[in-house]
Amino acid sequence: MTHRVDEIFATLRAEGRKGLIPFVTAGYPSLQATAAVIGAFEESLGPTVVELGIPFSDPIADGPVIAASMHEALHCGVTPQAVFDTVRSLRPDTGHALVAMVSASIVERMGPDRFVALAAESGFDGLIVPDLDVSGSAGRLDEITARHGLALTMLVAPNTPAGRVASIASRCTGFVYVLARVGLTGERTSLPDVSARVQAVRSVTDRPIAVGFGISRPEQVAAATRTADAAIVGSAIVRRMGRAADPAAAAAEFAAELAAGLPSGNGSPAAPE
């Protein structure tokens, strides 16, 4: 089944371009700002994949900026249902592929069947579940997301064993999320060389590959997308939203600055080996 995530990456590949995937915390600094930033990203980037983090009281691997944004959103009463309602309201007006970044705890608490059904009905196009047990509950979530037409993305860390990389990549139906570093999310002044890790993932899947964790500068976007299909930026965007008078405009302007680091369009994404 083809979904918007596939379509976004297929368009990038056909046009010889790479992508920028922004992350925002849903409900931070408000649900109105979340709705506004989706439209603002479309103006500054064109249709792309956008990650919406569903607030959770114990964020997985998130550094202080995203963790604080999630706690503030929860304090303001943002719930998964409120996020679904917001996505439903903006879905008719956006060409983005909207992907929920959500803890497995939320999925399990609501019930996987109910959570996925609600996500799909609201207009989400995929899920990223960073703490999903690949050897356990992943199999059932594979089936449920496929039944509802949602992409499912999982993470490959720098210390993920080769055999497990193949297992994770085989379960991904949107793109594979390659972590640039171990530890927590957050802005960094440098980016490790991820080319060997990206090529290792390419050797076991033909899914698109996106690199994230610590990307916050155009030159880091450029470095990540030399071999990957897209760069993911989160903390740097969330921080700017939190301190701006117009959060959506600040996020979109910064995303456009980061996109300047993408290849000019005459270099095609690396083909699978």
What would the keywords be for this entry?
about 270 residues; alpha/beta; TIM Barrel; nine-stranded parallel β-sheet; globular; disordered C terminus
Number of strands: 9
Broad structural category: alpha/beta
User: Number of folding domains?
Assistant: 1
The radius of gyration is 17 Å
Distance between the termini: 23 Å
What does this entry show, briefly?
With 273 residues, the protein is α/β, with parallel strands linked by helices. Helices cover 45% and strands 14% of the residues. The model is unreliable at 183-187 and 266-273 (pLDDT under 50).
Protein described:
The protein has 273 residues and is of the alpha/beta class. It has a single domain (4-259), classed as Aldolase class I (TIM Barrel). The chain has helices at 4-14, 31-45, 64-75, 80-90, 104-110, 112-122, 138-147, 162-171, 195-202, 218-224, 235-243, 247-259, and strands at 19-25, 49-53, 97-101, 126-128, 151-153, 155-156, 176-179, 209-212, 230-233. A nine-stranded parallel beta sheet has the order 5-4-3-2-1-9-8-7-6, with helices on both faces. Helix 10 links the parallel strand 8 and strand 9. Helix 2 (31-45) packs across helix 4, helix 4 (80-90) runs parallel beside helix 6 (112-122) and helix 6 packs parallel to helix 7 (138-147). The chain is globular. The two termini are 23 Å apart. 51% of the residues are buried. Mean pLDDT is 90; it is low at 183-187 and 266-273.
